[in-house]
Amino acid sequence: MLTYLIRRLLAAAVMLIVIIVVVFSIFFLIPKWTGVDPATMYVGKTSDAAAVEGIRQKLHLAEPIYVQVWEFFKGIFVGRTYSGGGDVTECAAPCFGYSFRNEQAIWPVITDRLPVTLSLAAGAAVLWLLAGVSAGVLSALKRGSLWDRSAMVVALSGVSLPIFFTAMLSLGIFDYGLGWIDSGFVPLEESVGGWFQGLLLPWITLAFLYAAMYARITRATMLEVMGEDYIRTARAKGLSEPVVIGKHAMRSTMTPILTMLGMDLGALVGGAILTETAFSLPGLGQAVLKAINERDLPVILGVVLITSLAVIVANLLVDVLYAVIDPRVRLS
């Protein structure tokens, strides 16, 4: 088990380095190939020649790409000093970049908005796992029944409907129409009840989309597993149906579900842009949307790296859970 974990940790570290290099190439190297001066893309409100040259010096844009990558990577752990153009800017560790347009470090922007996004992703994940997996298992066990057909119709609707439409519909009915739920966001430190109520509709809206996908994949996997030889053997040995389903069938069914969960949660850490925009949630998705409108590339770069790191961590946890659910993984 220890060897398995060490291999996964080393693979995650290598993947993180590769991602940093690729992301840097996209933001710094490709613009050079297309004839665009990267310094003009990162300059602040003052865009005269002196300001552009100052940005070029601060970001080491005249240096090879590996020097720029090393400076950024080092800044994550020890901080970074941006000097050039007659002024010096300090960025404390962990430094994920600096926005010269807004004169602020990227890490405080991320940490200020990340809790909102994490709350949205975690709450929605609990709902879509409970609803999606349960519906999928019941549909597989009652194949061809009215429940099976109804659940799959609802699942197909959830996958087909755009999330912004579902968000607007839920707001129009439950908030503006019936007034049952106040969707205005309230920070957790101000009021637990207000925080829960403000996130309830976003949780349900986001979970409706993902629960539909999880129900379909759970049903398909469960139907395949129920036809395996070891399931028939377990039944032939006289084991009760709940034991056969819960102890044997569900262990194999959970493998693709965990894979999806790791990818989905990792991606959502980067911000559920449509959901956060529809419900005016001050999360990373809103920060990215604002940065795109303002062409504030350091914020986009920072969020991309945080999202990549979240996907790596989520998949690392999934690999560990694989070994817990299926001991054969430890030997592979």
User: What coarse outline follows from CA principal-axis ratios?
Assistant: globular
CATH-derived topology of the largest domain: MetI-like fold
Please tally the helical runs, counting DSSP H or I stretches of 4 or more residues: 13
Succession of helices and strands = HHHHEEEEHHHHHHHHH
The SS-based structural class is: mainly alpha
What is the CATH class of the largest domain? Mainly Alpha
User: How many DSSP-defined strands?
Assistant: 4
Poorly predicted segments: none
For the largest beta-sheet, the strand count, sense and barrel status come to: 2 strands, antiparallel
- Assigned CATH superfamily of the largest domain: MetI-like
Going across the biggest sheet, name each strand in turn.
1-2
Rg for CA atoms: 24 Å
What do these coordinates show?
With 332 residues, the protein is mainly alpha-helical. The protein folds into 2 domains: 2-95, no CATH class; 110-331, MetI-like fold (Orthogonal Bundle), CATH 1.10.3720. Helix content is 74%, strand content 4%. The protein is built from 13 helices and 4 strands. The chain has a two-stranded antiparallel sheet with strand order 1-2. A two-stranded antiparallel ribbon has the order 3-4. A hairpin with a 2-residue loop joins β1 and β2 (87-91). The radius of gyration is 24 Å and the shape is globular. The N and C termini lie close together (11 Å).
What secondary-structure arrangement, pairings included, does this model have?
Layout: H1 2-33, H2 38-42, H3 49-58, H4 65-78, E1 80-84, E2 87-91, E3 98-99, E4 104-105, H5 106-141, H6 146-160, H7 163-177, H8 192-226, H9 229-236, H10 241-269, H11 273-278, H12 284-294, H13 297-325
Antiparallel strand pairs: 1-2, 3-4
Helix pairs in contact: 1-4, 1-13, 5-6, 5-8, 5-10, 5-13, 6-8, 7-8, 8-10, 9-10, 10-13, 12-13
